[in-house]
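Our consortium's second objective concerns turning raw sequence data into structural hypotheses that experimental partners can test. To show how far this objective has progressed, the report includes one record in full. It was chosen at random from the queue rather than selected for favorable results. The single chain below, 614 residues long, was entered without modification.
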Amino acid sequence: MKKTIIFATAAVLLTCCTQSTHTPTLTDPQPEVTRLEPLSWWTDMHTPLTLMFYGNDLQDARVTVEPKGGIIIKGQHNAENKNYLFVDVDVRKAGDYTFTLTQGDKQTTVDYVIENRREGSRMRKSFTSADVIYLIMSDRFVDGDPTNNSTDDTQEKADKSNINCRYGGDIQGIINSFDHITKLGATAIWPTPLLLDDEPSWSYHGYACSDYYHIDPRFGSNEQYKQMVALAHEKGLKFLMDMVPNHCGAMHWWMSDLPYNDWINQFPEFTNTNNAFSANYDINASEYDRIRNNRGWFDLPMPDMNLNNPDLLQYFKQWAVWWIEYADLDGLRVDTYPYIEKEPAAEWCKAIIEEYPEMNIVGECWTRPASAVAYWQAETVNPDGFNSHLPSVMDFPVEEAIRQALENDGNYWGGGLTKVYDAVSQDYLYADVNRLLLFVGNHDMDHIADIVKDNDPRRVKLALTLVATMRGIPQLFAGDEYGQRSVDLSRGHSGLRQPLPQEDSLTEAEKDMFDFQSRLFQFRKEQEVLHTGKTMHFISRDNTYAFFRYNDTEAVFVFANAATDKRLVPVDHYQEIISLYNPHGEDVLTGEPVDLTQPFFIEPLTSIVVKLNK
């Protein structure tokens, strides 16, 4: 017997999210199209194309297109809401087209453009472990164009005196920072969402989308976004888009007139997610908990999308493909991935990769331990047979280990850098460790300088040295290159998300931190062994961590000392791998020669990085 599970929570009744019977008021009652998505398309695409028409009373309209032959209409179907019509088309030829929707003797027309696909688009390269990703909190980064800080057509206005309001960071600010990013040694940029977020407050974070096909005018325009990506490519920088298929914003245009009742997940009362990712693979989990995780809302202003609706799933497939093709993107980051219904989420990823076989997509799977994260990576051999088709996942277990190792002196069994050793020892669980996104900070957690003991910059340098040299894809959070700290941790994420310090106001300590990281990541950029080499590491119980990244021709030796006194580097313990290479190298951080034939001491709260050749 099929059972219905009803959630009832003491919260706000969802009066804004039921299907509306409202239709646009028109002086002429004939059908009218006010939206057609995707906005355009291309020839030679592998993704099937279903156009979503929205307007006034489009149900059962007969659809034709001129000129003939370039677009073939294969079929159409209604939604529950008469203001929507879905039309399946086959694209044959580039050109300017006009769709005509006819109901009896009434007609409406809408223009549409098909472009020729750019050469080589399908096999575009994506970000890999050879890259370093620079994460930008878009509104808080750099205000490159103060004239767009507030606009007449958006609700929230900029107010830099209010820590919870918009500050004015924008696309021009990102463009103005390209030289800074390349000097640091980063090779790819991930900005938090730049699409329209028209919430009346807290809209600066961008994760409550109001329109999936338009850049927020307070950031710029679609054309400017496209130009930004092109300019980034000229600088040798790759570009990622942050996508959020799990939820939209309460101010999304369709929330007052949903195409289907199940377009979003709805309950009698507001029901938030239980954050129980484990319910997706736990053999003991209840259906109640699984549904609550996947269908509960992330937050009140963020309605949960139901990707089990086939029209919505197709909408999101096309949306991702459209932005990649339109803006010439190099990769995607997916927000709150395990909150989405897992089977359609996997189908979404698979569709993107079928269109772009070398595309990398990294999912935010904020969970632990490593076995829980590994479940979400593509090609993991899971007991339930699930394959997410998600190539990359964020390495939260190692992030946690590094931060915990450096937030105190670690002078206890299993403490300090032993935590990092233990975390890396779980690498056997992952389908591909080189596709783990490695980081120690992002826009949702305190700066690394906030949490290390005594806010000691030496500990910050230790953390970033590990990020630069361990397996995976390094990700830096804007501001950490200066050892930036939050302005007011008592006020949550808003205190963390602050503008990038300007060069003319840098302290000597900030300059030193930047120079250290620039030297480190510029070195990494040229070292294939750090991109794809294997790892051999050695345990100790003295708050140090030693490891080698190696291949058949070269190695990089890293020794990190998180203790507050000198530590011996016991090179005799490492002879099984040192013996394969010339033991004489140079510490790339200081330029000093290093002899790995004899034990030596390393200063407290420092590290060495030594390049070895055959």
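The partners drew two points from this record. The longest strand covers residues 106-115. The chain has a mean pLDDT of 94. Both points have been shared with the crystallography group to help prioritize constructs.
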